[in-house]
Amino acid sequence: MFTKTQLTQYTTLYRSGNPFKTGAVIVDLESKGFQQNDTIPYFQIEEKDNKINFIYKMSKEDVVYGLGETLGALNKRGKIYRFYNTDDPEHTPDKMSLYGSHPFMILDGKNTFGLFIDYPSEIIFDIGFTDKDILQITVPSKDFDFYIFDTDEKLSIIKEYFNLTGKPYIPPKWAFGFQQSKWSYFSEEEVRNVAKKFRETGIPCDVIYTDIDYMDSYKVFTIDKEKFPNYEGMVKDLKEMGIKVIPIIDPGVKIEKDYPMYEEGKEKGFFCVDENGNDFVAAVWPGPTHFPNFLNSEVRRWWGKKYKLFTDMGIKGFWNDMNEPSIFFTPKGLDNLFELLKYLEENKENAGIEVFLARETLLNIAGNREDYKSFYHKLDDGSLINHDMVHNLYGFNMTKATADELKELCPNERYLLLSRSSYPGLHRMASIWMGDNKSWWEHMLVNIRMLQSLNMLGFFYTGADVGGFGADSSAELVIRWMELGAFTPFYRNHTALNTRPQEPWQFDEESLNIMRDIVRLRYAFIPYTYSEYMNSVKESVPFVKPLSFVFEGDRVKDIEDQYMYGESLMVAPVHEQNKKGRYVHLPEMKWLNWTASKYEERNMKVYEPGDYYIEADLNEIPLFIKENSMILLSEPMNYVGEKEITELTVIGLVSDHAIYNYYDDDGTTYNFSKGEFGNLKIDITKVGNDFKIDVKTYDPSNILKIKKIHFEIYDIDGSVIKKDMIIG
Question: What does the pLDDT average to over 99-114?
Fold first, then answer.
């Protein structure tokens, strides 16, 4: 049934049939020797109706992690997950699918192991839902790769996965600044006013997005000259203010005579086709559209070069959306709906259940799987493959088209690239955000859990729409979410059409002041955030980790709303309505608590391990520095890189000895891969009632501009010693 090959000490590939080459894996598998093998460790295998079921009997203590962009708890037991990329803006607890498919998981318990199934269509993970003690994975095919990571160290499993699929994407440093978006800023004037308002209110900001309404009739790679008469001038003027503009890009190409994208794509045969060989038609924002055939390398090059329209303006960031691909309806689906409505019109006197069924038909007209089964891709070898068989790769290949050509258009320059749809391996070249969430308190908890799960898959640079995308948000919810977002790599406030505006100044004066302080706190942490992010990529360790990936014991496995942000800092956001604090669990060691509101105000307290109620007013977020660890801060700026960082503040809790390796580079190029980076090794040893501090500098390329370091080092009794050190 299977063949197998041992890739590393811990990673074995079990191959079924002749899998499609998805691009998820960077290892050359064709050079490996495969042997016949009919079993897979840990699993009972069952073949049925051209499906293969993998069945594992879970023990009571087993915890299941991973699965990336999925709803539900951090521990994935008790739910069914369906990996089939889906544009569904209603993220309710019953939903099985979202925009990305990430069939990688870790089982931690009586046996500990990881697995990854490389198959680009539907996979079902039933993790203790049908039977509370049974994990059943269903692959409706006999052509796929099944990887087992056989080690009992969770972080080692993740390293093995990264060795297989690649290290995480590294954005420019400015991407760690605050970002503002809205569906939509409808004019150039409105975008300029938003930028001006950020600078007038003293709220730091690095990015403003333009959603679909900057386009001419929603046609991709066009600009509406009436609403945005000088888009390029706007980009340049905002750049002078330290703000970058990022446009949204959708894959659907409007069917319109004399529209260059349509005419070129049609002439060259670059669109997906139906069963008769005609260009497939589906409706999205512009109305009837064609979908580019991104599984073809020539089409990807054609598409990627179109970004030159924007890179010539100096734009270095893009937001690829709607790339599951989203389908509002097809002509066939619309005809079926009209037939049903006609029937109801003719039989309205006796209509009953038919009205209910009509509602279901209307709800199911978008994203209908039968539509995905009705079109095809022409591959590089000239063969055709049904889209449904490779559905989960569409956004992956659109993103690959963008990333590959950006390397040509902007050589040796880092870019910010987001994709809504994703598949394993996309984390090498871009990242994702969490899609169309709602302004619900429950979705703050979804944000916290998904942040941890996505980091396990290599999507380090990720986050949710702060404040919630759909529905109206209260000032309290936006404030609490802004606090959470300040300790999330991707930090963007975004909201939907016809919802309450939620820029920081849209509420009352007190809320504005609180949010200003929160964003300034975020910018104060950027030296720590960026250093920890880069060190995490280097070491192949998640930047954001569950407590159970760092500390031992059953108790931490139950903690899903606290997380490690880098190696030194634990974050415990308040995520419930009207709460003036929250309970926290502090594992194994002593912790230095900073319930933070302003960068300038630091009232610290040392806690023993245990469970505590921590008071946190609306303007505060509980933070905890791990024993024998440090964080770094700098004076907040209006935007990343506004001025050189010449002074750092180091805060630590040291009971005996602590080391921190501070990393920095130019933040914009890939020269760090050539050794062009700076490093400060900060070594603190407790000596009696004092601390011995040693700082060693490695900076061959003169990256670091630090002249002075302010130290605030706490002893376990809560006393603090403050020292300044001149560097260089």
Answer: 97
Q: Which position has the token pair 């679909």?
A: 212
Q: Which of 396, 411, 416 is nearest to 315 (CA)?
A: 416
Overall fold of domain 534-726? Immunoglobulin-like (2.60.40)
Q: In the CATH hierarchy, which top-level class contains the domain 2-165? A: mainly beta
Q: What are the tens digits of pLDDT across the range 175-225?
A: 999 999 999 999 999 999 999 999 999 999 999 999 999 999 999 999 999
Structure tokens at 532: 């920890």
Which pLDDT value is given to residue 356?
79
* Catalytic-role residue among 160, 213, 324, 405: 324
Domain(s) of CATH 2.60.40.1760: residues in the chain: 2-165
Does residue 49 carry a catalytic annotation? no
Q: Is the pLDDT of residue 61 over 90?
A: yes
Angle at alpha carbon of residue 274, lines to 268 and 275, rounded to 5°? 120
The answer to whether residue 354 scores a pLDDT higher than 80 is no
Classify domain 177-249+295-330+391-528 at the CATH class level. alpha beta
Q: pLDDT band at 680, cuts 50/70/90? A: very high
pLDDT in tens, 359-417: 888 888 999 999 999 999 999 999 999 999 999 999 999 999 999 999 999 999 999 99
Is-catalytic flag, 324? yes
What φ, ψ does residue 387 adopt, rounded to 5°?
A: -55, -40
Q: Is 349 a catalytic residue?
A: no
Helix (H) or strand (E) holding 359: helix 353-363
Specify the domain boundaries for CATH 3.20.20.80 within the chain: 177-249+295-330+391-528
Strands of the sheet with 544-546, listed across from one edge: 544-546, 563-565, 569-571, 621-626, 591-596, 604-607
Where along the chain do the CATH 2.60.40.4040 domains lie? 534-726
- Identified catalytic residue from 150, 160, 279, 436: 436
The per-residue pLDDT of the chain, averaged, comes to: 97
Per residue, what are the HEC states of 278-308? Answer: CECCEEECCEEEECECCCCHHHHHHHHHCCH
Could you tell me which of 365, 285, 359, 292 has the C-alpha nearest to residue 330?
365
